[in-house]
UniProtKB/TrEMBL annotation:
PANTHER family: RNASE ADAPTER PROTEIN RAPZ (PTHR30448:SF0)
Top-level taxonomy: Bacteria, Pseudomonadati, Pseudomonadota, Alphaproteobacteria, Rhodospirillales
Binding site for GTP: D67, I68, R69, S70
Transmembrane segment boundaries: none
Name of the protein described by the UniProt record: RNase adapter RapZ
Residues in RapZ C-terminal domain copies: 172-291
Binding residue positions for ATP: G20, M21, S22, G23, A24, G25, R26, S27
Amino acid sequence: MQKIKDGKASDPLRVILVTGMSGAGRSTAMKVLEDHGFEAIDNLPLDLLDIVIGEKPRRRPLAIGIDIRSRNFSAPPLIEHIAILNKRPELDVALIFLDCSVDALERRFKETRRRHPLAEDRPLKDGILAERRLVAPLQARANFVIDSSDTTSADFRHNLTSLLGLEESGIMTLQVMSFSYRFGVPREADLMFDVRFLRNPHYDPDLRSLTGRDKAVADYVAEDPGYDDFVNNLQNLLLPLLPRYQQEGKNYLTIAIGCTGGRHRSVALTEWLGKKLESIWPQIIIAHRDVDKEPDRYK
């Protein structure tokens, strides 16, 4: 969901450079900026910065993640580069530094069992302290510093969007999507439901060429003895969850419903659920990932 409208050709291109301590939330920050309409590019080598920004005008703002894992990373050249970019009137460049306490970083790396980039052959704390020395000049130069030590994901999101003056509608966008298990599960799904237990219209010659968007197919699926219990339980499960996801700062939630071919049962249930949610939730997207794929593949 894009919150920042395309700028006019005369508006400066907004470029947000995101850096800081490993484990302090750079990936989360990049996702938040992407949700607000930025074109997000992470781990960009410094020598590609000019190429990515380019000489030609862009309409979408840029969010660029750079840290010690980026190729040829060095704080002084990056600071010099930012100073050069700031001299270009067609650009509006800002540097965000994400900080975090040593104790919190140690806890995060241990919980996720990730290896710190500078601690391959040394204790974790030594790697964190070595990184802090390397990035200290960037923290001193940053336009904005966000400390994520004791913040929830919702607080972090709020702090970032507030500092940057980004519009927050406060409404999470729901996407209800049908899919075929034959083509793989959608990686963007937050919640996934399998409806292959319902009666399959594929085996009715009069319905095979139709889809779940057709009333005849939807009625056929709804006649399954287990249909009413399933849809009632699904509704009772989802309705209390949606406001809780929004309270946690989630900007986009995808509910995926799958069947074998992605044309009949999952489409019918997705249409039903999408229309149910439209009456209580202001931002709904109904999508059918595989409905138009070749039916012969489902035999």
